[in-house]
């Protein structure tokens, strides 16, 4: 039931702070330690490499997961688009462990990979919102997203729930392996900061609605740019804008623009920089300037501690590894309001289905 909301998507965006709190309650003990079964942790501990597999938004959540696992556990982690992995399987390490990310648990492309993984005798974990879904039943382990039903075709709260669980799991695995970074990573505190920060962002809706009207309503195209984890979020931000607002959008590694794509910048093209990582903040800012010199209209989504006068949207500070949980929220709202103000059916964009059960 949408209640007083015009569309499920907005309701689901608004639910995200509560989903974060719920996940902390379900997956963390009273002292803030991850509650993850020993069996799952032992399987993962034996792995020399983690392979994350997913499609669409779930693939994008995997890109963030790679950073979490590599930083907190030192386990090399690869992320793959399921429809590619299924028929172009990469050379596997000696002891691979597979993580399937899927809101629905029914995505045919991901299932095709799982069938191969099972045939190879490997262990796997499905992180999904749907108990007893196909991917959950067929994997060795399951962790549920507990995000509540996601009805809008555009995935929002499943993305942030997937990242939160990846953070908890990476913390657990890193600690099981005595990694100091993991011991120091206070995931409970971080999820608390994230929930409060998300609330502040969703309370700023009217500001984002105005921004969407001014910069996205009329444009045929747009770019989200960033480096590292911010690049990963750029891909998700662009996908949201494409699928519900029909704006041709690209998520781009900011340093790569000048190697060709900058030719697409015209007078007024919106270029949105996502800036949450100290070591690359200055570089992304110069890349934004390069696009401005070619006529782009530049906007920024920046963590508070890195903010400068003139920045467009400021995000409350959290651990840089958790920043996608906040930086994605304004981009979800930009896509939502652009679609709404174009008079489109936000929840049911053309040509798309909620769950893609064909390959
Ligand atoms: O149910 P899944 O997470 O496996 O679905 C994967 C994609 O089909 C899904 O994320 C899709 O990209 C969304 N429409 C994005 O908003």
The bound ligands are:
5-amino-5-deoxy-1-O-phosphono-D-mannitol
Q: Work out the radius of gyration.
A: 20 Å
Number of helices, where a helix is a run of at least 4 consecutive DSSP H or I residues: 14
Arrangement of strands in the largest sheet: 2-1-3-4-5
Strand residue percentage: 15-25%
Q: Can you write the helix and strand succession as a string?
A: HHHEHEHEHEHEHHHHEHEEHEEH
Q: Write down how many β-strands occur, each being a DSSP E stretch of 2 or more residues.
A: 10
- Enumerate the spans where pLDDT stays under 50 for 5 or more consecutive residues: none
Distance between the termini: 31 Å
What can be said about the biggest beta sheet? 5 strands, parallel
Please, what is the average pLDDT? 97
Helix percentage: 40-55%
What's the overall geometry? Answer: globular
What structural class should be given to the helix and strand makeup? alpha/beta
Sum up the structure in keywords.
359 residues, alpha/beta, 5-stranded parallel sheet, 10 strands, globular, binds 5-amino-5-deoxy-1-O-phosphono-D-mannitol
């Amino acid at each position: 039931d949408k209640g007083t909301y015009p569309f499920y998507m907005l309701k689901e965006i608004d639910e995200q702070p509560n989903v974060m709190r719920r996940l902390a309650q379900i997956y963390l003990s009273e002292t803030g330690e991850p509650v993850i079964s020993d069996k799952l942790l032992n399987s993962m501990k034996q792995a020399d490499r983690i392979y994350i597999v997913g499609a669409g938004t779930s693939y994008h959540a995997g890109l963030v997961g790679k950073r979490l696992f590599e930083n907190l556990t030192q386990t090399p982690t690869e992320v793959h688009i399921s429809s590619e992995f299924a028929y172009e399987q990469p050379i596997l390490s000696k002891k691979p462990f597979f993580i399937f990310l899927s809101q629905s648990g029914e995505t045919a492309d991901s299932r095709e990979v799982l069938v191969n993984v099972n045939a190879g005798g490997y262990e796997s974990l499905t992180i999904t919102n749907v108990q007893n879904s196909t991917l959950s039943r067929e994997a060795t382990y399951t962790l549920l997203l507990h995000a509540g039903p996601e009805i809008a075709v555009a995935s929002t709260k499943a993305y942030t729930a997937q990242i939160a669980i990846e953070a908890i799991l990476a913390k657990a695995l890193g600690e099981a392996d005595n990694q100091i970074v993991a011991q120091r990573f206070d995931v409970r505190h971080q999820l608390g900061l994230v929930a409060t920060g998300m609330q502040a962002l969703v309370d700023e809706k009217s500001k984002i609605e105005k921004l969407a009207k001014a910069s996205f309503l009329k444009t045929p195209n747009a770019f989200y740019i960033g480096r590292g984890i911010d690049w990963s979020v750029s891909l998700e931000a662009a996908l949201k804008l494409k699928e519900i607002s029909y704006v041709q959008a690209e998520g781009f590694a900011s340093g790569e623009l000048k190697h060709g794509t900058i030719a697409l910048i015209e007078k007024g093209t919106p270029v949105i920089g996502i800036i949450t990582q100290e070591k690359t903040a200055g570089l992304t800012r110069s890349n934004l300037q390069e696009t401005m010199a070619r006529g782009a209209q530049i906007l920024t989504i920046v963590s508070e501690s890195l903010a400068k006068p003139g920045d467009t949207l400021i995000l409350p500070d959290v651990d840089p590894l958790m920043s996608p949980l906040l930086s994605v929220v304004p981009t979800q709202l930009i896509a939502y309001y652009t679609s709404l103000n174009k008079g489109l059916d936000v929840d049911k964009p053309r040509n798309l289905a909620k769950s893609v059960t064909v390959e």
